[in-house]
Amino acid sequence: MIKAKKDIDDAFRCYYRPLCLYAMHYLHDMAMAEDIVQDCFTELWERMTANKDVSNVKAYLYMMVRNHCYDLLKKEGQSDGNLLLSDLEDSISDEECEERSLIEARLWTAIDSLPERCREVFLLSKRDGLKYKEIADKLNVSIKTVENQMSKALRVLKEGSKKIYSFFFN
Question: What's the pTM value of the predicted model, to 2 decimals?
Answer without folding.
Answer: 0.55
